[in-house]
Amino acid sequence: MSENLPNISSPESNLPVLGQVDFEHLRPHQLSELMNSAWLRGIRIEADPKVRATMARFWSEFKEAQARYSPRTLSQLDYVWCQFVAWCDENERDYLPASLDTVKCYLSQRAQDKHRNTISTDKWAISRVHRETGCPDPTTDKLIVNLHAALVRTKVIEEERIKQASPLRENHLDDLRELWESSPALADRRDLAILVLAYETLLRASEVLNIKMRHLQVNTDGTATLMIPITKTNKSGEPDYAILSRQSFRLIREYLAMAGRTLDVGSSDPLFIGINQAGKSVKTAKPLGYMTLNRLYARAWQVLNLEELGIPCFTAHSTRVGAAQDLATEDGNTLKVQIAGRWASNLMVYRYTSNILATEGAMAIRRRDRR
After folding, report:
1. pTM listed for this prediction
2. What's the rounded Cα separation, in Å, for the pair 316 and 326?
3. Which of 156, 278, 295, 338 has the fewest Cβ atoms within 10 angstroms?
């Protein structure tokens, strides 16, 4: 994203406000304060070569520290920021730093046909790039804060809903087992093992893709314990654990045997790997990608003929949603669901299971027998 620093023609570099500034030791928050101070005096310093070089240095520091963020977060930041840059170029506006009017116009235009979550992501990306490069963050200004709140409220009043992944529930797994459990196709056996594991553990897509053989511990009763070293809500270095049923662990072993692979609990090889056009496991043990995982879920949806029932296509989040709903159906205990899914709060649990919980609510139970 360093190439997306605006190419503004440089003014005189010896502006009075920059006279005694030690740019070499300047930090992002200090540059932001310097810009604000200059702007209050009617001086625009952001195009000065020394300021531009300092902004580029800060961005390089951010890129060097990218290991602290997930690849998906970085990819999203790059994609969303580049959309903002393209809009600014098209409308002949500066984007770094961006004026309040620029951000206001951009978010307002996006709100015409974009979901409120998308607008929030736009605001986040603009904020992050400005802060990382030492530019004043326009999204913290009351004008933008109020605008964002108004845009979100309008969409809520208009009953815009947050799109939820189509749930892949236990009855779907049972149907898939009948179709794939004895299949001679390696893809069927691998995909079934993945879906059952993802359902039982409520793993997110990235967590499924990160599973290595050494994350499995074989138990004497035929089950297995899966170590989850890092999750969206746990980056402490202390892993979480989930139990795989005898069925799930058996499906994994059968997939590995059919693929000509050996379960080595000391190996760092990915548990699930690609399959070539000949239907054999690829020789290079690389983890599956997001696109492959999503295609896997879409294939399961297609095989089950769910389009005829009007059920939206499965995505890589469908097992997590479906498992949460099945657990909520049992006794309506959202705390158990929250713990099983390793959610930091019960907000997402309610979002995934609100329709299930409604049928077991106090009034629903009280009035159930009324005719």
Report:
1. 0.65
2. 17
3. 278
Task: Assess whether 223 and 146 both reside in one domain.
Answer: no
Confidence band for 23, pLDDT divided at 50, 70 and 90: confident
The reply to whether 220 falls in a domain is yes
- What span, in angstroms and rounded, lies between the C-alpha atoms of 329 and 306? 21
Crossing angle for the helix pair 186-201 and 170-180, to the nearest 10 degrees: 160
pLDDT recorded at residue 9: 35
Q: Answer whether 258's CB lies under 8 Å from 186's CB.
A: yes
Q: Of 128, 157, 186, which residue is a domain's last?
A: 157
Tens-digit pLDDT profile for residues 98-150: 999 999 999 999 998 888 889 999 999 999 999 999 999 999 999 999 999 99
- Which residue in this structure is represented by tokens 């779907």? 172
CB atoms within 10 A of CB 85: 19
CA distances (Å), origin 346, targets 207, 330, 350, 352, 353: 20, 17, 6, 10, 10
Q: What three-state secondary structure class fits 73?
A: helix
What are the Cα distances from residue 339, in Å, to 202, 226, 234, 251, 354?
10, 15, 13, 25, 17
Nearest CA-CA partner of 214 in 200, 224, 222: 224
**Both tokens assigned to 53:** 């070089």
pLDDT at 238 over 90: no
DSSP one-letter string for 274-322: -B-TTSSB-SS--BPPHHHHHHHHHHHHHHTTGGGGTPPPP-TTHHHHH
Q: Are residues 91 and 39 in the same domain?
A: yes
Of 164, 191, 162, which is closest to residue 176 (Cα–Cα)? Answer: 191
198 in any annotated domain:
yes
pLDDT in tens, 206-220: 899 999 999 999 999
Angle at alpha carbon of residue 157, lines to 152 and 158, rounded to 5°: 95
